[in-house]
Design brief:
Blueprint (H helix, E strand, L loop, with lengths): L2 E5 L3 E2 L5 E8 L8 E6 L6 E6 L6 E3 L7 E6 L4 E6 L8 E7 L2 E2 L3 E5 L2
Parallel strand pairs: 2-11
Antiparallel strand pairs: 1-3, 3-8, 4-5, 4-9, 5-6, 7-8, 9-10, 9-11
């Protein structure tokens, strides 16, 4: 059974950084591309970034380019989302996804 568990979310000040983790079980990261999504209060869920199954290709939404970096650690079977220069508008519940499986989500709050 595929399972994804996110961690690393917390309250951070504007301009700060966070690294989110998405730990996979029931499959290996080489099996699927992994995506990060987020949903802010009152808004639709939006795509943030994804990494190919090989890890050789990464993609970002325009508003995240240059600030967010997605990566994977095969040994830990975990995908990371490094988020720098965070803004209040990055406040959202962040989810990772593999195939049709979603994690439970992790809250990121950017506020002074």
């Amino acid at each position: 059974q595929l399972q994804l568990v996110e961690s690393g979310g917390e309250l951070v000040q504007p301009g700060g950084s966070l690294r989110l983790s998405c730990a996979a079980s029931g499959f290996t990261l080489d099996d699927y591309a992994i995506g990060w999504f987020r949903q802010a209060p009152g808004k639709e869920r939006e795509w943030v970034s994804c990494i190919s199954s090989s890890g050789g290709s990464t993609y970002y939404a325009d508003s995240m380019k240059g600030r967010f970096t997605i990566s994977k650690d095969r040994a830990k079977n975990t995908v990371y989302l490094q988020m720098n220069n965070l803004k209040p508008e990055d406040t959202a519940l962040y989810y990772c996804k593999a195939d049709t499986t979603w994690g439970q989500g992790i809250q990121v709050t950017v506020s002074s």
